[in-house]
Every structure is written in structure tokens, then in C-alpha cells.
Predict the 3D structure of the following.
Amino acid sequence: MKSGRDPISPVFPFLDSKDRSPFVLPLFPLHTVLYPGGCLPLKVFEQRYVEMTKACIGDEKPFGVCLITEGSEVADPAKGAVVAPQFASIGTLAAITSWDMPQLGIFHVRTIGGARFQVRSHTIQPSGLLVGEVTLIADEPAVVLPDAHRPLAALLRVLIERIGADHFAPARAFDDASWVGYRLAELLPLPPGIKQSMLEINDSEVRLLVLSKFLRQQALI
């Protein structure tokens, strides 16, 4: 069975919410950082996340992706009770835009990053699923890519062409400072802690300055 939708459409009004009131969100801690507008394919096979995926598809709502800072993505049955990994408190909403179930109990899903959020508290359900009380973080101000950072957009175009456009959301915004910074942050081989800091920064130009420094050190620009 398959289902597909536009990356951010009226079917996901939750992603465009300006409400900063706390709400409950299922969490999926991973050894990766999801940025707003980024694509993240996932193979879901643990029962707790299979059930979460079913619920998110049925309710047409997102789950939350947070970077694991210590621990494992997959529970160890030998340890009995599920031990939650330590994870960053700032994460990103992930909306399922398409899915497939190639065999019973395994989902292949494609997600796209929406708004950022902050985890205020969390609990572990009997299934082992982490559920957080979170609040959305306001989008950073929209800024036209400064001329000084045009080389970053040019590099990004080359990277997207080499990797393949199908690995990215259809929307392209090479003149948008936030979009260029987020895409480079997800593509460059940065340490996880730096990738997380690129998510937490709320100033697109500061993010671009950090990325420019890294790229100059690597003689890439």
C-alpha cells in the first residue's frame, strides 16, 4: 500500500501553526538532525515506532525527530525494559509525505521537516515510545541570501545535482538564507553536535558564517 502527498500542504495544517501552546508529540530520537524543509527517509521496524507511524498516517499528524546525544536508536530486548536514550531538547516536526509497507511490520516512509520545537518534558509509554510535551519555536526571520554568501548557493546547486534532486523536497529556494543554510548543514560532514547547533541557531546569517568558515577550512569555496 502506498500513499503520497505534497510535502507541506493543507493536509498538514499542524505544521503551519503559529500557536505556541504546549502539546503532546510522539518522539523518534535518531542519530541524525532533521532540518526544516529537509527530507528524511526512514525504515521503521520496531513495534513502538510501527504503531506510531500508523497513528501519524491515520491522523495526518507529524512526529518529532530529536538528535540522540547518548544511547541507541534501537531498544535492546536483552535489557528488558526500554531505556530511553538521551536526546537534544530542540527537534523538528517530521510529516510523512509517502509510505510503503514492503512486508508486514516494516514501513518505508519519506518525511519532510516542518517547524522546530522544544521538548519541555517527556515520558515513556509502556510500549517504549517516547512522548514529549513540546512547544513550537517561531520560524527565524526570512532573509534574502546576502551576496557575500552566493558561493554557498552555487556549491549547494552542485551538491544537489550530484546527489540527485529526488533526495530533496521539490521546492528550491536558493535565494533564501535559511533554506541554503539548512540544506548545507544537512549535507556537509559536520560533527553531530555542530549539526545540532545549526538547528538551534535562530539567525540564518550566523549559520551561514559558520558554514562558510568550515568550507574555507576545507578549501571548498
Summary: The mean pLDDT is 89. The helical segments are 47-59, 150-163, 177-187, 192-200, 204-217. The first helix runs from residue 47 to 59. The first strand starts at residue 2 and ends at 4.
